[in-house]
Amino acid sequence: MEYLIRFIQMHETFRQPEIDALADLAGIQMDWVFYSEDSPFAIIRFHDSAADEATARALIARSVLSDEIYELWGSGTDYNRLHADIRRRTQTLWPQHSTRSFRFKVDSYHGSRSLAEQRQLIETFDYMSFTGPIRMSKPDNHFTIFEHYDLDTPAPRALHFGRLIAQSGRKAINKYNLKKRTYIATTSMDAELSLVTANLAHAAPGTLTYDPFMGTGSFPLACAHFGSTVFGSDLDGRSIRGTAHRNVSKNFTQYATTPLYLGALIADLTHTPLRPSRLLNAIICDPPYGVREGLKVLGSTRPALQQIVHLADGTPAHLQPGYIPPKKAYSFTRMLDDILAFSADRLVDGGRLCMWMPVAGSGVPVGCEAAAAAAPPPPPSDAPETPDTHIDKVEAEAEAEVEAEAETEAEYPIPRHPALALISICQQDFNKWSRRLLTYRRLPDNQVDETAISAYTAQRLLAEETSQLSGSDGTGKFKADDLNDFRKRYFQGFRGEPGAGT
Amino acid sequence: MKLLTLNFLTCARKTCKSTAAAFPLHPKEAELEQVEMELNPLFVKNMLPRLDWEAMKTLATELGLPNLPAETPVAEELANESGEPTQTLRDLHTLLMETAIASGKLVCGNCGHEYAVKEGIANFLLPSHMV
Ligand SMILES: [Zn+2]
């Protein structure tokens, strides 16, 4: 038996990776018999000949980018061929369905049928001689006639007919709608793509998922929806703490997933407190970029701040209550490498990293180029920073940095790590920019190329030294171009990894 | 911060990372809280091999909690023959998931730096001279 997946016609490049991830998670092996980005109808076949409705249900239950899965009864390019195919495939099944209650529906993609036309169409299926009662609500069998039209053409170009097996998990989108959520920010990932990301990350009961840039917690919330235990961190403690009634913790209360929330840390990924041990099943993140958020890490490029700063009364500034450590701008491409290295050290075998990134350096949200151009140069003062003044300076540095990366206008290379196999690349296009969701799987150590790992580690150390040298003369800027060269050099030696593809 | 999380954390300073003394962090002036949580047997079972049990024992002693078994409990000890949760599982659950540090400090045994915990959230940010 083949099955038809009724996809939504959106986020097309995410649809197959989501189903593949869910099949993998459920231990289901399957083939794509038909898939096209132009069509909401896809056809699959399970490897296991004993696979049945339950298999189809297990596959689709969590899917966000599909609506339903159907047992496929037939396909054709016109109605004569469709009916012939239905007879060929399902004639032996008709008796077992004959007395069940049923209903028919017509699903015309890029086309429409009047009610009268639909009724006429449905009557052409009467050769199956179902005698059970017709029920519009909760019938035993729900049959759908699928029509796929080319735009502005009178006749459909492809037809399918199927029996509904199960609904997807798409209704969770409504539950997690940002508009109904207690605590959000302007940068919170929407419910739909958060849930898709959680699917690609294999969030599931008994697993532990970590988000190092958690913000208001969209990803951890989505992972907890699928039963994963979660925790996260953020450089900005204010985003975690929120207010008394609106904070990350309250979001978990809202969705009744508090038992799955371990909590949050205020931390910087480049100075992480997570011990380098294989602790995590999944890492899921959308690292900040662009002027609006500005990528920052701990540290300062100013020599005066490389020593302990003392206040007028002689006490060290960093021991004061409410002390805010200085932060400096950081290269986005370098952060991506840091995330991969962090993940390779902490994911269990088969564990997954799901990471969002913009496609190009110039791909910053609308208005940011103008903002960067108008940014004032960093203040020249050498006076020690105080908690009150450092924020403006950080903003200025971040903007200057982003401007440097934006100038390159170049597509960011897909970051690679010898211990991480790239599983899928999904792309979301906006009006003026695009972003990607990359998914990697941690390879077991015995599948990792040792030469590649040594070369990678050596290059990482070299990059670290280079950056410290440039930091000591006060510039501390790592240009995207430097890193692109660096990446080209060290990946030339790498073997092609298995499983990579779009 | 739950005691499970604390078992995952070491000093954030690069110079401390590779030293044995930086892990586990030592609680100081810690105020504990106990929050009842739904039992998650599968999760506890999966975490067992990832725990550093020596660090868990040190922590229990430092917090004045009852002594832990000498060795990490094994998965078989978590459920009885009929699949019911054992006392071992309940004890682990209480320790790892229900006991948390509400406020206090976490001290690195190598460099002595103190990380503050407020309202259950630990702050691992470092001043520039420690970065
Ligand atoms: Zn330390």
UniProtKB/TrEMBL annotation, chain A:
It is found in: Cytoplasm. SUPFAM superfamilies: S-adenosyl-L-methionine-dependent methyltransferases. Gene3D superfamilies: Vaccinia Virus protein VP39. Residues 1-170 form the tRNA (guanine(10)-N(2))-methyltransferase TRMT11 N-terminal domain. InterPro entries: DNA_methylase_N6_adenine_CS, RlmKL-like_Mtase, SAM-dependent_MTases_sf, TRMT11, TRMT11_N. One of its GO terms (cellular component) is cytoplasm. Its EC number is 2.1.1.214. It is an enzyme of class 2 (transferase). GO terms for biological process: methylation; tRNA processing. Residues 180-294 form the Ribosomal RNA large subunit methyltransferase K/L-like methyltransferase domain. Keywords: Cytoplasm, Methyltransferase, RNA-binding, S-adenosyl-L-methionine, Transferase, tRNA processing, tRNA-binding. Pfam families: Tmrp11_N, UPF0020. GO terms for molecular function: tRNA (guanine(10)-N2)-methyltransferase activity; tRNA binding. The keyword DNA damage does not apply. Signal peptide: none annotated. Belongs to the class I-like SAM-binding methyltransferase superfamily. TRM11 methyltransferase family. This is tRNA (guanine(10)-N(2))-methyltransferase. It comes from Salinomyces thailandicus.
TrEMBL record, chain B:
The keyword Protein biosynthesis does not apply. The keyword Metal-binding does not apply. It is found in: Cytoplasm; Nucleus. It holds the Pfam family Trm112p. One of its GO terms (biological process) is rRNA (guanine-N7)-methylation. It comes from the Eukaryota. One of its GO terms (cellular component) is cytoplasm. Keywords: Cytoplasm, Nucleus. Belongs to the TRM112 family. This is Multifunctional methyltransferase subunit trm112. It comes from Salinomyces thailandicus.
